[in-house]
């Protein structure tokens, strides 16, 4: 292979670097050609499916130049229909990039690049000019979107709310430190998950700040929640009760299990974990009590402090048992919100630390938008079975229906 490469260099009559550059261009050209063919085929197939569903006629094609990380695709044939309301999934209306330009800018900005550095990088990557002023306008718009998201009015009913904090590295005045972001995710009346807020704070996680977060949600319109699920943070249940005194609180069983396992010898962890899983997987109060009694008998003598901590927190560890069985697998833990936190950390990992607090907000906004879009496509399993029971609990707690009927009589 090396001999053939040397022969090619000799035949082309250039330096090794020149030949490498030529080969790179040829490869990129071939990739762009194949990419164009693939996108045009996808567009045709999408239009065909759209026509079958909406009973509309095709209306030829229009041409669009499309920027990709490999370079520009020229004269891409984009299919259209007579009604003008069809767009292939890979191309939003008026979009000229195969990727989200804003996301690329947010990532570079979060990594500490100046607007001038970003402008130069984009020009080198895309062979298209983006002035520092335009880059600055895009980043400023993102910050405005983040603030608007955190202040937007909450209109729907969210019976279930998950609360958790995650730590991210942020640079302030030249010093990098871990700072908590308070996160709240709700399940709305349609059974869809939605991130309701992200609340960056420069201090560690505390129940006092959680009260501030909850008060902000209440001010924005979060009404008549039934159940909050949170970790074992001291004072969190009291913070919830202070702002929403009629709501229930469930302390995350998986957090409790992890905390317990960290306090025991390695040789005992597997057996202890198995006993705790038996407790956590119960769906009836009687079964929970029976499994918990077995857990106490097996471990009270060996690890009294672990068993005592479970006994002390038992009231908030068993709240989920008062809710519909179909819902219980989703409400005994904060796992739903932890997955979102992991996605935030995954995006932050390549940056190592945010260059400033504003950069942190941009990435949080980006991930929130993407996750909420994904959440909006999938209803919680068996929600139709759980919802009537939740509405009954709502009526018992808040008297919603009774009040409505009385108001109608008065009118």
List keywords for this structure.
411 residues; alpha/beta; 3 domains; five-stranded mixed beta sheet; two-stranded antiparallel ribbon; 16 helices; disordered C terminus
Explain what this protein looks like in three dimensions.
By secondary structure, the chain is α/β, with parallel strands linked by helices. The chain folds into three domains: 1-91, no CATH class; 100-151; 158-393, no CATH class. 56% of the residues lie in helices and 16% in strands. It is built from 16 helices and seven strands. It has helices spanning 2-12, 16-54, 101-110, 115-126, 132-151, 207-219, 236-243, 253-261, 266-280, 285-299, 304-317, 328-331, 335-349, 357-375, 383-398, 400-410; strands at 58-68, 71-81, 160-172, 175-187, 193-200, 227-230, 248-251. The strands form two sheets. It has a five-stranded mixed beta sheet, with helices on both faces. A two-stranded antiparallel sheet has the order 1-2. A hairpin with a 5-residue loop joins strand 4 and strand 5 (193-200). Helix 5 (132-151) crosses helix 14 (357-375), helix 6 (207-219) runs parallel beside helix 7 (236-243) and helix 8 (253-261) packs antiparallel against helix 9. The longest helix has 39 residues, at 16-54. Residues 402-411 have low confidence and may be disordered.
